[in-house]
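Researcher: Next entry in the queue.
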Amino acid sequence: MIKISNPDGVAPPIGSYSHLAVVPAGTDLLCLAGQVGMTPDGSVPDNASDQFVQAIRNILAILASEGCGPEHIIKLNTFLVEPLDLEKIKGLRADMLGDAKPPSTLVYVPKLATPDFLVEIEAIAARPAR
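Model: Structure for this entry, 130 residues:
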């Protein structure tokens, strides 16, 4: 189905991601709204690492509602208000996404929708058409 790769002619990724996702024709695209670190009960952890984990949990829950998992993610965009320990984030991400290494972008921004939000992650996924 989805082909994830790192083509020759460019430097290898500097993290747990890939440079390219090729989505075949006849595939459903799932475009998720940016997910922040808000738990289902509406609380927001007070640190960026916990918000990162919760944002990924939210993404996985949304994907599961459509019969999808991490292997269906074709793009992640992460927005951070403050620096995170990237090695720690790599480990957390691997724990949650397993072997999935979708193309990804990480951007530092001055602020998000409210001052409590320190992390926001957008996801695009693909699945075989139903």
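Model: The mean pLDDT is 95.
Researcher: Noted, moving on.
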